[in-house]
Sequence to fold (440 residues):
Amino acid sequence: MEIPGVVIARLPLYAQALEALAQKGEEVVSSQRLGEALGITPAQIRKDLSYFGRFGKQGRGYNVAGLLGSIRQILGLDRQWRMALVGVGRLGRAILSYEGFAPQGFHIVHAFDVDPEVVGRKFESLVVRHVRELEETLAQEPVDIGVVAVPPEAAQEVIDRLVRAGVRAILNYAPMTPRVPPGVQVRRIDPVVLLETMTYYLKGQEGVRFLQGRDPLFLR
Amino acid sequence: MEIPGVVIARLPLYAQALEALAQKGEEVVSSQRLGEALGITPAQIRKDLSYFGRFGKQGRGYNVAGLLGSIRQILGLDRQWRMALVGVGRLGRAILSYEGFAPQGFHIVHAFDVDPEVVGRKFESLVVRHVRELEETLAQEPVDIGVVAVPPEAAQEVIDRLVRAGVRAILNYAPMTPRVPPGVQVRRIDPVVLLETMTYYLKGQEGVRFLQGRDPLFLR
Fold:
């Protein structure tokens, strides 16, 4: 059975909420309470989880550790994932030093750049290699995921190289939409795009406020 | 007419692609070509844009600068947006120094933290204030958007304070799902959640590869 992508996309949020509950020492959680924590209806949670079998008993809620373990297994988080970073500028160095990856099983094992000031230097115990060594390095020590933090005009070429080297999942920090062959996943991480999806509504609210009698000049 | 959220969410990507075309000196673009650049069908692009009126002429494509200007206006990007950052740790400092915000009209004008080692220090020309001054500061110099880069266990309280101070849009870097009242928008930016939506499929591919005869032990 094909699981809808939106269901898969919600599972990491379930896992995160369950981890927070487990850290607080909670052993059981209702779909009601989990829904409140996530802003999702309890019916949606029960429906999402029903794709993967039976969890919890009617009226007794879910066992926090058990459900968390199952979701981590479904998502493939019961193993370690190897990543290659391309682009070790200011953003790339922030990514290298980000402490949120390792606890979830994500490890940057290679870092590449083209800048002669950066290639050969060590950041967070990784020596930066030149991008021209990318294919050879990944042939010898493969990775599962490529993390792209290069300027947008260099990103397509870098992503092409990663794909040629066998990488099938890309986390793209460059503000552009790359072309990739079928079977290669890309996730964009771009704060500006997220901000721009909110300003439309902020602008709308402003219009509403002004309509209610403040300054009609600002309406558009 | 209510515009579907998915349409609004695609507009920043259109704007980004049109900016790249404009920088290359392109004056006209077909929905076909724009679609190829974005991995969206031309029909979808025409349908999305039809919500906002008539753009382009049948068979002649869109005027790049004109369409870009219209989309920027629709999204409210023809003005400047003021933001307050809460959390000036390692991540917060990377956000403060991120060069992608200002060219798109987003400006961090206040920064807050609770750490006595950080409060009073200057980063990127901003003096960090204590979080307890948040409400008073925003009452005097309001912002449109709050950017939250505090640890997950502190994030709900910070977001509550921002909302009480009148902020209606939150860009949340903390790995948690906050509760907010209706009318407040939150966008999560979390690389781990994005990675976790890919590993499900990577795991699947691995299963497929192994099914084709490599190592049945790894199947689950």
Summary: The first strand of chain A starts at residue 28 and ends at 29. The longest helix of chain A spans residues 191-211.
